[in-house]
Amino acid sequence: MSRTSETLFRRASQAMESREAADAAVVIEELNAQLRKGQPTPHIRKLWTSFSRLLEHRGFSASTPQEVCSSLREILDAGPGFDLFDLARAIARCDVTLMHCLKATSAREIPELTPFQPECDCGHR
User: Tens of pLDDT along 17-66?
Assistant: First the structure.
């Protein structure tokens, strides 16, 4: 991982641990821009761990797959502008960039966020 990507990855994780979802989303969008420039970002799944903890801190249940699914549906229903929705979409955007655009993975690293998956700039979904 490049120093820039590493720094952004760390900043995003720290923002989520500090319960700053909006700040984390901005940093993850910067991270996605680095990905598009070809700077690898391994371990994107670690963002899911931080995101799950943030959900718990915000009162969403994330202990079981069913609870995660229910919580993500609530967040999806809230839509754009809700900080957790925007954060989930930013993480999903990185995931889809790795899979479809860069072909770095053969499957989504964070399939739980598939409903938030935006269309890539290159046209992949």
Answer: 999 999 999 999 999 888 888 776 667 889 999 999 999 999 999 899 99
Other C-beta atoms closer than 10 Å to the C-beta of 67 total 14
Closest CA to 71 of 62, 80, 63, 79: 62
Evaluated on CA atoms 108, 110, 113, 117, the torsion sign reads: negative
Spans of all domains in the chain? 3-116
0.85 surpassed by pTM: yes
